């Protein structure tokens, strides 16, 4: 089903800004990105042929701090998707109250079709193309779908060629190059902490709670790892090729070993196959979409049989699906809260890079947990204070108010 992510985000923004009774012109200013850069990226393939790929860096708002947000390498990347993702970053950093704005970037490419050399060249060409608008105090990228610590290392190296050693230009780097302990796991770990708080708040027993995870990359695997440690029963997971299910619960440690050895979740012992649509319909306590946007939409929302949706992915639930789930009494814990652990740890990485002083993992995780728990209870308090206020609208209201205050105080609307 074709989903316009930007339109979906605009709907979410409009609902919250009208609850806030935000001035119309201020709302327009906050809704749309400050700057949009499209770049054409030439790539000489290993067979010497030339391909030109389209890339983007979109800077949504920097009233509260430098633009901050990931880089996605995926065939579906387009301007509207990057716009929506950049805006979600502004409101995510505001909601969780770290001194960043929001931005996002991406290249329309399937990295699985590239060799390692091609991937490195493409990354370096992209850095050169967006270099005029990024900087340690201006715009700091990070990993997202199909990008990882190695790509961040190439990114940092290319930028440092002209600016000197600059680890703070990008987060999600390898530890040996200024990455932070705890960053790689932080998004999934954060999702598991939020889920734990939701369970407690809503009276769902965490020990033995059943969980389904769509998407088993960085975020999905770390969420599974930590939820398994909390005693949850992960009954199904999936990747781009479909999923596996075992109603008695998957042994997550053994599954991660199997994935490491075979490169895939498929073929794991004592499991049955399931497709990426059907996995969403499995009865469970918690459904965690942890892959792409728009997967829960008006055509399938009615068929969900979970108690709560926890959005580890960005933008997985469309506004019409939100409404359907509300009528079905299935609360949705929004992306800007549920996956904010990644950007919080990125912030800690950036702070360590600026200080050139590094923290141990325990300190990172402790600070991360405190931020997320406070964030959840702030959202929950507002959501429960008024009839008909979803967690998403409450989260957006808190975030929009903070960005509006910063824009106003900085005199940007004079
Ligand atoms: P990733 O590339 O590491 O993993 C993505 C996973 O999704 C893979 O298992 C892939 O096979 C699977 N997938 C791809 N297409 C799919 C499909 N059509 N159906 C089901 N599964 C599919 O990416 P990631 O970093 O884990 O990001 C996942 C989501 O979390 C994205 O929405 C991203 O924006 C969001 N997110 C990531 C971070 C981060 O720190 N990495 C932070 C915040 C939010």
UniProtKB/TrEMBL annotation:
GO biological process, one term: L-glutamate catabolic process
Binding site for substrate: 68, 92, 346
Keyword Cell cycle on entry: no
Domain Glutamate/phenylalanine/leucine/valine/L-tryptophan dehydrogenase C-terminal: 180-411
Alphabetized Gene3D superfamilies for the sequence: Leucine Dehydrogenase, chain A, domain 1 (3.40.50.10860), NAD(P)-binding Rossmann-like Domain (3.40.50.720)
Positions of the record's site feature: Important for catalysis: 144
Binding site for NAD(+): 187, 218
Entry keyword Transcription regulation: no
PROSITE patterns: GLFV_DEHYDROGENASE
Catalytically driven reaction(s): L-glutamate + NADP(+) + H2O = 2-oxoglutarate + NH4(+) + NADPH + H(+)
Active-site annotation: 104
GO MF annotation terms: glutamate dehydrogenase (NAD+) activity; glutamate dehydrogenase (NADP+) activity; nucleotide binding
Record key words, sorted: NAD, Nucleotide-binding, Oxidoreductase
Domain of life: Bacteria
A Pfam short name: ELFV_dehydrog_N
Function field: Catalyzes the reversible oxidative deamination of glutamate to alpha-ketoglutarate and ammonia.
Stated family: Belongs to the Glu/Leu/Phe/Val dehydrogenases family.
Protein's recorded name: Glutamate dehydrogenase
């Amino acid at each position: 089903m074709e989903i316009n992510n930007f339109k979906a985000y605009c709907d979410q923004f409009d609902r919250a800004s009208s609850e806030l009774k935000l001035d119309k012109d201020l709302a327009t200013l906050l809704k749309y990105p400050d700057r949009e850069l499209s770049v054409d990226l030439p790539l000489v393939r290993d067979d010497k042929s030339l391909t030109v790929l389209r890339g983007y860096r979109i800077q949504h708002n920097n009233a509260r701090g430098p633009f901050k947000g990931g880089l996605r390498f995926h065939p579906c990347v387009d301007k509207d998707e990057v716009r929506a993702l950049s805006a979600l970053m502004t409101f995510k950093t505001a909601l969780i109250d770290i001194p960043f704005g929001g931005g996002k970037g991406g290249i329309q490419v399937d990295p699985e079709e590239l060799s390692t050399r091609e991937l490195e060249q493409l990354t370096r060409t992209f850095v050169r193309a967006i270099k005029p608008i990024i900087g340690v105090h201006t715009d700091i990228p990070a990993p997202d779908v199909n990008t990882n610590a190695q790509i961040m290392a190439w990114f940092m190296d290319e930028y440092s060629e002209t600016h000197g050693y600059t680890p703070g230009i990008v987060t999600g780097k390898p530890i040996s190059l200024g990455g932070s302990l705890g960053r790689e796991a932080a998004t999934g770990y954060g999702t598991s902490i939020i889920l734990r708080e939701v369970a407690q708040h809503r009276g769902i027993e965490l020990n033995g709670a059943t969980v389904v995870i769509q998407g088993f990359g960085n975020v999905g695997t770390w969420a599974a790892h930590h939820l398994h440690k909390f005693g949850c029963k992960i009954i199904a997971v999936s990747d781009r090729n479909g999923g596996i299910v075992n109603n008695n619960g998957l042994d997550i440690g053994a599954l991660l070993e199997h994935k490491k050895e075979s490169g895939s979740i498929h073929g794991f012992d004592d499991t049955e196959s399931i497709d990426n649509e059907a996995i969403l319909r499995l009865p469970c306590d918690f459904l965690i979409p942890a892959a792409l946007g728009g997967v829960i939409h008006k055509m399938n929302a009615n068929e969900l049989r979970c108690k709560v949706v926890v959005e580890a992915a960005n933008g997985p639930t469309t506004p019409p699906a939100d409404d359907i789930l509300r009528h079905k009494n299935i609360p949705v814990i929004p992306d800007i809260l549920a996956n904010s652990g990644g950007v919080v740890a990125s912030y800690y990485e950036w702070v360590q890079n600026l200080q050139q002083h590094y923290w141990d993992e325990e300190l990172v995780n402790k600070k991360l947990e405190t931020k997320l728990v406070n964030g959840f209870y702030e959202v929950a308090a507002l959501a429960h204070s008024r009839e008909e206020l979803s967690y998403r609208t409450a989260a957006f209201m808190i975030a929009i108010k903070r960005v509006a205050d910063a824009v106003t105080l900085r005199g940007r609307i004079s």
